[in-house]
Amino acid sequence: MISATATNPKSVSTKNDYVLFDRGTKAFVYGYQTNAIQRMLDFDYICKRDSPSISAIINSNRAGIHKAFWGTKEIILPMFKTIAEAAKAHPEADVMVNFASHRSAFETTMEALERKTIRTVVVIAEGVPERQARILAATARKLGKTVIGPATVGGMTAGAFRIGNTAGTIENIIASKLYRPGSVGFVSKSGGMLNEAFNIISRNSNGVHEGVAIGGDRYPGSNMLDHIMRYEANPEIKMIACLGELGGTDEYRIIEALKAGKITKPLVAWVTGTCGPVLPSSVQFGHAGAKADSQKETAQAKNEAFKNAGAYVPNSFDNYGEMVKQVYEMLKSQGKVKDVVEPEVPRLPVDYSKALTSGLIRKPTTFICTISDDSGDELLYAGKKISDVLEQKVGIGGVVGLLWFKKQLPDYATRFIELVLQIVADHGPAVSAAHNSIVASCAGKDLISSLCSGLLTIGPRFGGAIDDAAREFKRAKETGLSPEQFVGEMKRKGINIPGIGHRIKSVKNPDVRVLLLIEYARKNFARTELLDYALEVERLTTAKKGNLILNVDGCIGILFLDLMSSCGAFTKAEIDEVVKLGYLNGLFALGRSIGLIGHILDQKRLGARLYRHPTEDIAYMLPKPEDIDCKR
Ligand code: ACO
Ligand code: LMR
To answer: Looking at residue 290, what is its pLDDT?
Structure first.
């Protein structure tokens, strides 16, 4: 794992005043902008920087870490809640890319400027009040620092440092050869024109060395001349290009500097907005500052003034690239610039999600789900919209039909399921599951743990004999065993017939729940053949012992088989699968959970204390000491 904060001595930058960003630049990103963060790192990676340009993220919501990619490897970026903490931990970072909204851009930028180690702040936000923007500009000048923006995409030093999302996709960056420095310094107001200019300059010269968009607001933190004078001072930059806009007088600062001989390198200039005069008077163009309030502020006037001051001004923006080429070729003939031998550009892996959605890659899924789908606009139960499930009032029995059986069952079938759930919901605090849930709750366990404790008692003797009963009675009947033969076979095997027997219910004390289930089946099912068979078995077993009745587990399992075989919604194969996979114990667990939760809540309400079983209720029958001595 490459640590993003390891600063390689070689890469620690020793910047001249005219250099804001170089291959050693380390920055903070204010605001959890994960896409912009990854784009900056991807740029660093294709530029073959020694280490990432981001020292840390400042996220006012939480501190911690952020995982990002360095090529195909993952790196950890530290995340701080405040600028102060980040600056203290990472004094090497002298840039802050500020993604704060217009509501907090001013205060966070001022706080960053007050940090000794931070030299440059890029303010991305649009809508920063002009008064605040003017204070930012004045503060930066007073401190000898640089603010780029507000309302900017930022800028970049080719082959060294990218601000946020500058220059768009990595494909555009590679096409504009921004992974290595050229000889042209560029500045504009507009971020869009910056990206366009990268492309134009890369096609008509040896490429951009540095490009900055100062932002389209009326009062930028730094103006175009500030950056042009940095380019003038930078020996790596041999020619300068700029794109102005109608409105304001920023361009005249450059023109005056040209006239005063402060700019000696050739300057290609164009001011956009020449269509202004053909439109109704003083149209407000996109940027706040793009409105010509006087003739002097028109694009035509500025282009004329640039030309008169010695700048290279094309006839229109369409010829901007040609003009760049003309100046570049002139410098080349003077031996001041030369074409760049393109370095090999590291291949940047495509993000998995992008590759998947664009069909570049495919991967086998880990799971298959055939019962529900939450990936679309609306949740689907077995393909049925949840809104339809509710509108058609399919009920909880219908939802069980959809999610367990993937069938919209007939109403009497869904009502049977609901009858079962109601009947098994509870059977008092004495039964195994309720007892365990109560004891767990008295031990202070939470609801879910106490519920699980109770559910764990469901098994072949209690609540979990539904599937066993369905399987055994189905087998007996399908193999042609008479009830007598079936009872005799199970006796010979020494197996208690699942679905038969109860601790307290008996012929004399019948289980009303069973009677209710049978009554419903008799009334609603087309056939109840397996029930009839089971009742024959019950006649035989109760002849032996009164408590060997068809119990509620057995009744549910047997009736569900009668339901499936008579309702026409299930094939034989599907019925066999229900028995084989053991669907039906789920009905007891689902229903009994209602009662168990009731008991748990009951005990919590009562403030019941830890349960300890009375010792007088335990027969202690220990071995004698001499019987356990195995050391002889
Ligand atoms: N089939 C055949 N014989 C049985 C059955 C049965 N299902 N259940 C008990 N017997 C016999 C025993 O073999 C024993 O015979 P013996 O006296 O000759 O040894 C006698 O009846 C008493 O057996 P016990 O297990 O002591 O009877 P008990 O009343 O404790 O058992 C129980 C109740 C656990 C439900 C038992 O009947 C049984 O295991 N049934 C099968 C599992 C089942 O259906 N459980 C669901 C119960 S309902 C519910 O949990 C919601
Ligand atoms: C139940 O529903 O819990 C039972 O029938 C078991 C019992 O012992 O009552």
So the answer is: 58
Phi, psi dihedral angles at 161 (to 5 degrees) = -155, 135
What whole-number distance in Å separates Cα of residue 83 and Cα of residue 260? 41
Give whole-number Cα distances, 341 to 180, 181, 200, 288, in Å. 10, 11, 19, 41
Cβ of residue 427 lying under 6 Å from some atom of ligand 2:
yes
Number of domains in the chain: 3
Strands 54-58, 27-30: pairing kind: parallel
Give a three-class secondary structure readout of 226-238: HHHHHHHHCCCCC
Please give the pLDDT value at position 283: 55
Provide long-range contacts, Cβ within 8 A and 24+ apart, for 563-571: 563/413, 563/416, 563/521, 563/525, 565/527, 565/529, 565/530, 566/525, 566/526, 566/527, 566/528, 567/409, 567/410, 567/412, 567/413, 567/525, 567/526, 569/405, 569/407, 569/409, 569/410, 569/413, 570/405, 570/407
- Cβ 431 under 6 angstroms from ligand 2: yes
Q: Give the three-class secondary structure for 618.
A: coil
Q: Are residues 89 and 42 in the same domain?
A: yes
**Pair 256, 186 in one domain:** yes
Domain end (from 380, 403, 423): 423
Residues 492, 539, 506: CA angle, nearest 5 degrees: 100
Catalytic position from the list 287, 427, 502, 599: 287
Contact in structure between 167 and 136 (CB atoms under 8 Å): no
What φ, ψ does residue 15 adopt, rounded to 5°? -85, 140
* pLDDT at res. 11: 37
Residues 6+ apart with CB under 8 A from 391: none
Q: In the structure encoding, which two tokens stand for residue 223, read together?
A: 């103006």
Do 329 and 378 lie in one domain? The reply is: no
Question: What separation in Å is there between the alpha carbon of 551 and the centre of ligand 2?
Answer: 9
Structural domain contains residue 356: no
Write out residues in the chain with pLDDT < 70, as ranges: 1-14, 275-293, 632
For strands 120-123 and 146-148, give the pairing. Answer: parallel
Output the six-digit token pair for 519.
Answer: 């009554």
Q: Which domain holds residue 159?
A: 2-333
Q: What CA–CA distances, in Å, run from 49 to 1, 150, 155, 161?
A: 16, 28, 18, 9
- Same domain for 417 and 438, yes or no, is no
Are 470 and 553 spatial neighbours (Cβ–Cβ below 8 Å)?
no
The ligand with the least distance to the CA atom of 512 is 2
Q: What is the Cα Rg of the chain in Å? A: 40
Q: Is 550 in the pocket of ligand 1 (CB under 6 A)?
A: no
Whether residue 323 sits in one domain with residue 191: yes
**Nearest CA among 121, 123, 167 for reference residue 146:** 121
Both 454 and 535 in a single domain? yes
Query: What pLDDT, on the 0 to 100 scale, is given for residue 296?
Result: 84
Q: What is the per-residue pLDDT for 349?
A: 87
